[in-house]
Amino acid sequence: xxxxxxxxxxxxxxxxxxxxxxxxxxxxxxxxxxxxxxxxxxxxxxxxxxxxxxxxxxxxxxxxxxxxxxxxxxxxxxxxxxxxxxxxxxxxxxxxxxxxxxxxxxxxxxxxxxxxxxxxxxxxxxxxxxxxxxxxxxxxxxxxxxxxxxxxxxxxxxxxxxxxxxxxxxxxxxxxxxxxxxxxxxxxxxxxxxxxxxxxxxxxxxxxxxxxxxxxxxxxxxxxxxxxxxxxxxxxxxxxxxxxxxxxxxxxxxxxxxxxxxxxxxxxxxxxxxxxxxxxxxxxxxxxxxxxxxxxxxxxxxxxxxxxxxxxxxxxxxxxxxxxxxxxxxxxxxxxxxxxxxxxxxxxxxxxxxxxxxxxxxxxxxxxxxxxxxxxxxxxxxxxxxx
Length: 387
Known about the structure:
- It is a single chain.
- The protein has helices at about 20-30, 40-60, 75-85, 100-115, 135-140, 165-170, 255-270, 270-290, 320-325, 340-345, 365-380, and strands at about 65-70, 90-95, 115-120, 145-150, 175-180, 195-200, 215-220, 295-300, 310-315, 335, 355.
- It has about 375 residues and is α/β, with parallel strands linked by helices.
- It folds into two domains: about 20-270, Type I PLP-dependent aspartate aminotransferase-like (Major domain) (Aspartate Aminotransferase, domain 2); about 270-380, Aspartate Aminotransferase, domain 1 (Alpha-Beta Complex), CATH 3.90.1150.10.
- The strands form two sheets. Strands 1-7-6-5-4-2-3 form a seven-stranded mixed beta sheet, sandwiched between helices. Strands 8-9-11-10 form a four-stranded antiparallel beta sheet, with helices on one face.
- Helix 1 crosses helix 7 (about 255-270).
- The longest helix has 20 residues, at about 40-60.
């Protein structure tokens, strides 16, 4: 087991104890294709998928008219939603300054080929991490965009966006809302009564394996499908089925990843108060640890943030300092974090930042390892001995 892992915003390293054993046991006993047969193992696999959907809905306290749709990743889910909007020339999309390339690149592609308009949600001048909800409502009154796309927690700084308030404003003015919960699902509450599409990523805050993501939406969603293929149902239909989730789930499901997600979501539900408290405590502990070192300048806000603390290292580029840490056994993420607009907005473009990130399962040994390395670097920097 590796200690000193602080790249949980990319993927959580430590998983709930027993998850990998559950995956192995389940797949060796019931690893049949879902919806492709009436035999026992296929039916059992179908029950696992259905149970995982229900657990995700329960975790998010979703309304009864919602369904969980599985995709191979949050990136694919966001692409499906953005392209499924059926955008036309001059349609306007609102985004925050903190969006990931999983949002930016599809939108810029559509801007290039059909000339959609991309506008940023207004921010407060006195606090660049706070959204100006008053001005946002004024904008919505004046001219209604097609959709608002928003990361609930930014993957560069960890800043928490007011997704509930923005979702309510979107609903009030009949604007489609898409919330990217990749860095928040299970950790930060989100009121899905006011959110049209909520995206989740299995291998981050949900503590599951890679290869599984998706979104939660109304069962009556009329977004056009983006990927076409077999679903195991309504096979004679030339089009994708009308019913959800099948309409958005072409192809064979990643049952290995869904089994792991089932286990991790069950574990989170059974330990929910502890998980949320521990994640918050770990982030605060990380922040207070990093602020002890005068060669690190913290850029992330302390309040209204989750999971992530990003810094500049005096005298080093982010990549240089990341390599120094890596050589000493510390895992962090450096550079632009697939979110160049966020770095432009906060003034760290093009060099980027050093991003440290925790999860609810970050342990004392991780912090002790990091402290020892940073203490040693303090001595080396004073002696100009770093190589």
